[in-house]
Amino acid sequence: MTISSIPVPGAAAMSDGLDPADVPHRVLASGARMPAIGLGTFGSDHVTPKAVAAAVKGAAAVGYRHFDCASVYGNEREVGGALREIVAGGIPREQLWITSKLWNDKHGEADVIPQCRQSLADLGLDYLDTYLVHWPFPNFHPPGCTVESRSADAQPYIHENYLRTWRQMEKLVELGLVKHIGTSNMTIPKLRLLLRDAVVRPAVNEMELHPHFQQPGLFQFVRDEGIEPIGFCPLGSPNRPERDRTPEDTNPLEDPVIVAMARAHRVHPASICIKWGAQRGQTPIPFSTNPANYLANLKAVSGDPLSDGEMQAIAGIDRNCRLIKGQVFLWKEGQSWEDLWDTDGVITPP
Ligand SMILES: NC(=O)c1ccc[n+]([C@@H]2O[C@H](COP(=O)([O-])OP(=O)(O)OC[C@H]3O[C@@H](n4cnc5c(N)ncnc54)[C@H](OP(=O)(O)O)[C@@H]3O)[C@@H](O)[C@H]2O)c1
């Protein structure tokens, strides 16, 4: 996978922004070029759809072209309004990279295509650049639920069922509704099965990645397979929902190594986390509704790189601290969240 820049004619950025041509890009296995940073759009249950849509518009104005959306974020209609304005304002659709995701209660064979069409309608698009299976577990839990919430319909990973969902994802590509399909919250053993059986391979895998959760094994695995790693919670998601907090969690923004580097580079620790992610080879998708923050995040990938020594120092602060543990997706009594993540290298049996 190479990183390069592409010119984006006719879309000069605002004076305090960045020319999108100066934002690095990833070249996917298909040859498509994806901006190497995107704006997250999950409001963590407390940021309103309107505020997220305003951030999407503002981010496009300062040079973002990549937006990470999902139906479960509950704001695709509002984000779609912003995307329509962005295109009407002169940024061609082809210069945008838009992801959406299939939610866990829509894995059924009959649901995948209608659900994708719904996201397209809400986002005001006639195709998506990437459409992901958000989690490998079919279930339902209400928005804003607590960590104890469990779905009566929750199921483990059953490969035959996932494959049935994946066949519908492949159809979306055939239908021209989606350019690339991908996975999210997967593990190596699950991906091995999918790669064995997929007709259309996943182009990307979205996974939690920040200096305190570097997932070196999975990161290397997907890169070796030509799958682009997209890094969610790149700043350690400091404002994540209550259900995603435990007393053991650590905060990469407060890590003394990161803080010292931030001082040396005269930036916020967030910029160091983003530089590290982008230079390592993942595509960070930080969320922000604060214009100064989302601009700083974009600028972090386009100049003043970390040295090899700094990259190595950050490699040394991994705490294996998963923040988005997924407790609400557990499917039976007496389990712990580790059961979702196949930590001993085999898929947890039903
Ligand atoms: N596939 C999945 O299952 C999955 C799971 C989780 C997340 N995601 C995606 O990943 C995106 C990012 O994850 P996230 O939103 O949880 O966490 P994050 O990007 O690590 O952290 C976002 C938080 O950091 C703050 N922030 C952003 N830039 C900053 C800066 N320069 N300085 C100081 N603070 C800054 C933001 O506050 P301000 O708004 O005040 O700047 C926001 O509260 C999501 O929005 C979503 O699109 C995907």
Layout of helices and strands, plus pairs?
Blueprint: E1 3-4, E2 25-27, E3 33-35, E4 39-40, H1 49-62, E5 66-68, H2 76-88, E6 97-102, H3 112-123, E7 128-133, H4 159-174, E8 178-184, H5 188-197, E9 204-208, H6 216-224, E10 228-232, H7 256-265, H8 269-280, E11 283-284, H9 291-300, H10 308-315
Parallel strand pairs: 4-5, 5-6, 6-7, 7-8, 8-9, 9-10, 10-11
Antiparallel strand pairs: 1-2, 2-3
Helix pairs in contact: 1-2, 2-3, 7-8, 8-9
The structure holds NADP nicotinamide-adenine-dinucleotide phosphate (NAP).
Residues 40-42, 44, 68, 134, 184-185, 206, 232-240, 268, 270, 285-290, 293, 296-297, 324 line the site of NADP nicotinamide-adenine-dinucleotide phosphate.
Write a compact overview of the structure shown.
With 350 residues, this protein is an alpha/beta fold. The chain contains ten helices and eleven strands.
Brief descriptors of the model:
350 residues, alpha/beta, TIM Barrel, eight-stranded parallel β-sheet, binds NADP nicotinamide-adenine-dinucleotide phosphate, disordered N terminus, three-stranded antiparallel β-sheet
Quote the beta fraction: 5-15%
Query: Please, what is the oligomeric state?
Result: single chain
Helical content class:
25-40%
Q: What's the alpha carbon Rg, rounded to whole Å? A: 19 Å
Q: What is the count of β-strands?
A: 11
- Uncertain parts: 1-14
Account of the protein in words:
The protein has helices at residues 49-62, 76-88, 112-123, 159-174, 188-197, 216-224, 256-265, 269-280, 291-300, 308-315; strands spanning 3-4, 25-27, 33-35, 39-40, 66-68, 97-102, 128-133, 178-184, 204-208, 228-232, 283-284. By secondary structure, it is α/β, with parallel strands linked by helices. It has a single domain, classed as TIM Barrel, CATH 3.20.20.100. The longest helix has 16 residues, at 159-174. It binds NADP nicotinamide-adenine-dinucleotide phosphate. Residues 40-42, 44, 68, 134, 184-185, 206, 232-240, 268, 270, 285-290, 293, 296-297, 324 line the site of NADP nicotinamide-adenine-dinucleotide phosphate.
